[in-house]
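Protocol step 4 of 6.
Sequence for Deoxyguanosinetriphosphate triphosphohydrolase-like protein (Comamonas odontotermitis) entered exactly as in the expression construct, tag removed. Do not edit the line below.
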Amino acid sequence: MQAVDSSPVWTEAGLAPYACYSHLSKGRIHAQDAAPTRSEFQRDRDRIVHSSAFRRLVYKTQVFLNHEGDLFRTRLTHSIEVAQLGRSIARALRINEDLTEAICLAHDLGHTPFGHAGQDALNACMVNFGGFEHNLQSLRVVDDLEERYPGYSGLNLCFETREGILKHCSAANARKLEAREPGGVGRRFLVGEQPALEAQLANLADEITYNAHDVDDGVRSGLITVVQLMEIPLFARYADEAVREHPQLQESDWQRRWLYEAIRRMLSEQVYDVIRNTGAALQAAQPANADAVRALPPLVGFSDAMRAESAALKRFLFQNLYRHPQVVDTTSRAKVVVRELFDIYLARPQEMKPRYAARAQGLEQAACARVVADFIAGMTDRYALREHERLTGKQLLTE
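Step 5 output, structure tokens:
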């Protein structure tokens, strides 16, 4: 009888020496046997995709509230687009695609309803109770809040995935993390180290993606126009290029194709710029392995010229889209929803879902406030609006 080949069906052959290799992972908080058909980072990705927090992203705001239009991005579609972009760049750089994808898919799991407005409102509510950071909340989701396994809370992800999810962290919270997990994901914020290349890439892929799709959604909404965008060099260069090659794009019936083509070319050039610039930085630094990367300055990034152009696009979106009176009006009302929900739940924890009410029972105010923040952060836009109407009788935003 022929012996069964017990070697894994997955492979990480071809990765650069400075990539993260799953068999060299710093491990999970709770030890587990290896999976026969998946690497540890593939396993992390699958756990993230099957989590409740990931499914809830489909009804969480990116810029426009979920009910404002069927085709606007949500946190879920944003995360998928970030993962696609991240994988493409990771492949070109010969770093770990599966780890990059896992980080990209999980990076917004802790985001509140109503986008950054909800985050700002919840942080203001928590100012006397330790504050609220959505990156830290994403880590709380995968470490503690997901309830799927009998032996532990959370998803029990690898160190490298968790490290990438926590892309920002205050010194105070980093010290708390270090006390809880010595040498863990909080340590780099205290000693000034960088995360792995895959985490650096996921962070940049997030920025590239939201700049591009916010241009698309902004024009679709009618709040910004292509005429305005033509004053931004990064967009105008590729819009002009597209028209030179396809003159029909200037016709009224082709305007949306013109926008898509300009965005596509802009995205492609940003991707190629990251690949060229990061490749040159890696060639110069010659890190021997993933640990060596942590002791170096950031290596994944734009060229100076592209960084300046990307920053100009970001400033344009901030001034003309995120601060547009219509968006400000909506987000102002969303902040009221979050603030009033927080005050009610803190005063009457029994109004929360039973498992959160049970967690809050008998706690001092600061600990109870953290439970309330966990509950609100996990809400979708529509659930938060329904809860607010149930508890206050008011309709500040219509579904």
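Step 6, annotate. Confidence is low (pLDDT under 50) at residues 1-7.
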